[in-house]
User: What shape does this take?
Amino acid sequence: MQVLASEIDDIKKPVEDELREFEKKFREAMKSNIPLLDRVMYYIVQRKGKQVRPIFVLLSAKLHGEITDRTYTAASLIELLHTATLVHDDVVDDAYERRGFFSINALWKNKIAVLVGDYLLAKGLLLSLDRNEHRILQITSNAVKEMSEGELLQIEKARRLDIDESVYFDIIKKKTATLIAAACSAGAASATADDTAIEKMRLFGEYVGIAFQIKDDLFDYGDDDIGKPRGIDIKERKMTLPLIYTLQNCTKADKRTLINIVKNHNTDRKRVQQLIEKVRELGGFTYARQQMHFYQEKAFDILKSFQQTVYTTALEELVQFTTDRKK
Assistant: This one.
């Protein structure tokens, strides 16, 4: 099935009413008595994204029972965590835009952005503790730990450019996939106490997250669907799957040339374009797409173990969306 980014509204229809209820509860969770903080929170809420992760929470809960207050707590906690990591990431990356709008650090500087990220994490902790949602707190706290480890592992390896495929997958499982895995397992945990079912959804989310990150890797190289290459990951010396595959399957001379570009000429447009063309020529782009679809199919296989409902269909379409999105 092919699902375009513009069809995200159709995907969320089975939980549309519940998503509106979540948004109301999330806005309440974001409020603060400090005027400056309240202004920043309002700015964040007004510029929310597609809310893919809360949708995963709600649909995962519906696979295992009914959406309850526990589910809204799980969705709010996931979204608070996700928002906090985005705010902190923009500080770490010196990024001044987020989804086409100014980032928090661009408008209020780094110090306030870091404190806002800390505040969001603390709000998530208090939200779960106040409601005695210890299992959901455990799931999300583990995600925070894994994401931090993934980022640090990537920074460490980027300095030496010695990432092989196994290390790459270790990084993206921690850095990206763990949050989607947490969304799916927390959603399940809000509707069932069955550890096997919760782990099944965690694994489902991990597969989706891996496919999601590989799609991000492919954005850097461009294709007929995506448009012109960005080269941002290359400038940041990130070892993405297309490049890793190419370095493992090229001549020693080509390898030296490509590593030299990443290390010493990553802001030179012509050199970066040369690297992108070599990656495409040697099959790095094709291999990454194959791996993306491999993990997507593993996620679909898990969904096939459930009785077919509007919720499994919506999750299938949401998985498809992660690899068909245009940005």
